[in-house]
C-alpha cells in the first residue's frame, strides 16, 4: 500500500478527531488525534490490502497468530507446529486451520508461472466447467443407454421417471404435478415411481451401467 494512500487516510482520521474532540473531557488533543489517525489507517488497510476483504475480527486473530509465531521464534522454536502456535495464541488448532484457510492470498491468473517466461497460470489451468471430448461422448452414450433401459417400463411408468428426473428437457416435475396430469393422487404417483426404480435397479448389473460410475462423481 503506497505512502500517499496512508497519508490520505491519516488526514481523514485527523479531520475526524478535530470534529469529535471535546476539550472539556480532559484529554490532550495529540493523544486523541493519534488514536483516530491510527484507527482510520488500520481500517483502510483491512479494507483495501486484500483482493477479498476479511472481517475485522479475523484481522485481530491473525495478529495474535503472527505474534504467537514470533514468540515461538524468540524461544528458539524456529519451526513451530500448529499445536504450538494455537496454544500460544489461545485458540484451538481447528480454529487456526480455518483462519489460515480464510486468510489465503489469491494468485492472479495473469501472473507468470516462471519468472523467466511469459506463460501465465491462465494458460496452463484447465477449465473445470468445460468437459473434454472424451467425457462428452461418454455422457452422451450413457444417456442413450439409460433411455434404452427405460423401455423395460410401461409407457406410464417410463413417462413418470422421465418427468421426475428431467430426462428429456432437464426440468424435474413434482409428484403433485404428475398426479394432476394423470388424475392420480400424490401417494399413488410416489408408489409408481418407487416400483419403476426397483425395476430399473434389478437390471443395472445385466445392462452394464456400472461402467459409467466415474461420470456420476
How would you sum up this structure, described in words?
The protein has 217 residues and is mostly helical. It folds into 3 domains: 1-49, no CATH class; 54-125, Orthogonal Bundle (Arc Repressor Mutant, subunit A), CATH 1.10.10; 133-216, Arc Repressor Mutant, subunit A. 63% of the residues lie in helices and 0% in strands. The chain is built from 10 helices and no strands. The protein has helices spanning 3-20, 29-48, 56-74, 82-89, 93-102, 121-124, 133-149, 155-165, 175-182, 186-207. Helix 8 (155-165) crosses helix 10 and helix 9 crosses helix 10. The longest helix is centred in the last third of the chain and has 22 residues, at 186-207. It holds the Pfam family Sigma70_r2. Belongs to the sigma-70 factor family. This is RNA polymerase sigma-70 domain-containing protein. Keywords: DNA-binding, Sigma factor, Transcription, Transcription regulation.
Key features of this structure:
217 residues, Arc Repressor Mutant, subunit A, 63% helix, WH-like_DNA-bd_sf, DNA binding, transcription
What is this entry, summarized?
With 217 residues, the protein is mainly α.
